[in-house]
Design brief:
With 293 residues, this protein is mainly β. It has helices at 116-121, 242-249; strands at residues 7-12, 17-23, 27-32, 37-43, 70-71, 95-102, 105-113, 126-134, 138-146, 152-154, 156-158, 161-163, 170-173, 179-182, 188-191, 203-207, 213-218, 226-229, 235-240, 260-267, 273-275, 280-289. The structure holds 6-O-phosphono-beta-D-tagatofuranose (TA6).
């Protein structure tokens, strides 16, 4: 495929993964073909918008720690023993269908279709497309089509990793007072802080029926606010592993937990999506720094 100016195919690590490096007058980015996973994004004149672990592993069939892995066709625990948490889409090689220039923006469309292997994991015919628009803002559109004769239900999350100078001086706004399921307390329903979510311990919260629009605030004033705009995504997951879980994960890097947080956008649990045969739905998420809004 002829790639537009500013996009080149590169190796990712030493285990055969391939990626696309993007350099335009508006931004720099790095995408893994495995999982159609955005790994890095930085608008010109701005700090990096995404966090990528310094200890990320670039191995076929293994999720890369950072950027925006796509959890699909389910978010969270596997629906049956032997299936991967967060679905299989992030482990698969997606096809680059289109790569175009729209002015100084670059638009890349990746697709994933069911095959005999996916049908052993999830017995449905589907097409998923991840469409990335890279410019002064970052926009991801997930498009899912039911190509089966039966309706089926799926859940998903754009599992976004964001940088912060210090997680202990970071707040997430937009979920004040909302109820959430606490994954660390057996999914007990608790209510969010009125002044925004702060971090003082391992945090793993799932919100349903939320607005889809949030703001990450660095109270130390060293990083511009990060704006998350995804009204099609009614679930939000807020996560920081803190040091103990980070050690167990093994690919968070030395003290990586202090400089990151996940605010993930999707539709899970009661927000899961049911598609009729032939139905296609899309879910758009825009991420940017405040100064460029
Ligand atoms: O999004 C939060 C979460 O579900 C956490 O429970 C933690 O497991 C995190 O995702 C990372 O999961 P992963 O499979 O990418 O290591």
């Amino acid at each position: 495929m002829q790639l537009p100016a500013g996009i080149k195919d590169i190796a990712l690590g030493e285990h055969g993964l391939r990626g696309l490096q993007i350099e335009t007058p508006l931004c720099r980015a790095l995408i893994s073909r495995q999982g159609a996973q955005l790994l890095q994004f930085q608008a010109q004149g701005q700090p990096p918008l995404l966090w990528l672990s310094e200890a990320a592993l670039f191995q076929p069939g293994r999720s890369i720690r950072g950027g925006i892995p796509l959890c699909f066709p389910w978010f969270g625990a596997a629906p049956a023993p032997g299936l991967p948490a967060h679905g299989f889409a992030r482990h698969r090689l997606w096809q680059l269908e289109k790569a175009t220039a729209d002015g100084d923006d670059r638009v890349l469309s990746f697709s994933l279709h069911d095959d005999a292997d996916t049908r052993t994991l999830w017995p449905h015919a589907f097409t998923a497309r991840q469409i990335l628009r890279l410019g002064t803002h970052l926009t991801l559109t997930l498009e899912v089509e039911n190509r089966d004769r039966e309706p089926w239900q799926f859940s998903f999350a754009q599992h976004s990793y964001f940088p912060t100078p210090d997680i202990r001086q970071t707040r997430v706004m937009g979920l004040e007072g909302r109820p959430y399921f606490d994954a660390l307390q057996d999914w007990k329903v608790l209510s969010s802080e009125a002044a925004g979510i702060c971090f003082g311990a391992e945090t793993d919260r799932v919100y349903e029926g939320a607005s889809g629009c949030y703001r990450i605030v660095d109270d130390s004033g060293r990083q511009p606010d990060i704006l998350i705009h995804g009204p099609d995504c009614r679930s939000a997951i807020v996560w920081n592993p803190w040091p103990e879980k980070s050690r167990r994960l093994g690919d968070m890097g030395e003290n990586g937990w202090t400089g990151m947080l996940c605010v993930e956008s999707g539709n899970t649990g009661r927000d899961s999506i049911r598609l009729a045969p032939g139905e296609c739905r899309s879910f758009t998420l825009t991420l940017t720094h405040e100064r460029l809004a």
